[in-house]
Amino acid sequence: MERASAARVGIVRRRRAGRPRPPRTETLRDCKVLRRYNSALVESSATVHQNTLRGMAWGLAAVGGVGALAGLLLGYGVARGLSRSIRQLLVRVQAAADQLGHDMPTVELRGGDGLDKIDEQLEQVVGRIGDVVGQLQQR
After folding, report:
1. Are 129 and 96 in contact (CB under 8 A)?
2. Would residue 18 be called left, alpha or beta, if left means φ above 0 and alpha means ψ between -120 and 50 degrees?
3. What is the SS3 assignment for 22?
4. Cβ atoms within 10 A of the Cβ of 7, count?
5. Angle CA 99–105–106, to nearest 5
6. pLDDT grade, residue 137 (50/70/90)?
7. 26/69 Cα distance (integer angstroms)
């Protein structure tokens, strides 16, 4: 590559000095040198580009893997938090039902029960609270 750079510098110097153009053989030789120099630059640029693309691919794969793992952990955390909140709500509903009287059914939530079952039980408690408030207002 140094030879190509030297040839390129030689061409520029000759033109600046106002010298006449070199003979055709000299021009062809200089063109071949420049072509080899440019080819070497293109090859080194292509190699750098390939290495950059390879690094980016690994980086994207790492980000995707970390993102998937983070999503999994976040989902687990949210599910666990909701489960605790629902259990606390059920304890409070059960306490309210116990204070209203013993004729209320026990509020239970099993593993297979869903939010519909909780809603149904809450509706029973709300209805019973309404009945008790109505009885208290009649007295």
Report:
1. yes
2. left
3. coil
4. 19
5. 75
6. confident
7. 64
Distance CA(4)–CA(44), nearest Å, equals: 15
Q: State the Cα–Cα distance between residues 51 and 116, nearest whole angstrom.
A: 56
Residues 32-89: tens digit of each pLDDT? 999 999 999 999 999 999 999 999 999 999 999 999 999 999 999 999 888 888 777 7
The dihedrals phi and psi of 45, each to the nearest 5 degrees, come to -65, -40
The sign of the CA dihedral 95, 100, 106, 108 is negative
pLDDT in tens, 79-121: 988 888 877 777 776 777 676 665 655 555 555 566 677 777 7
Residue 88, amino acid: Q
Phi, psi (degrees; rounded to nearest 5) at 51: -65, -40
Q: Under DSSP, is residue 67 helix (H, G, I), strand (E, B) or coil?
A: helix
Higher-pLDDT residue of 23 and 39 is: 39
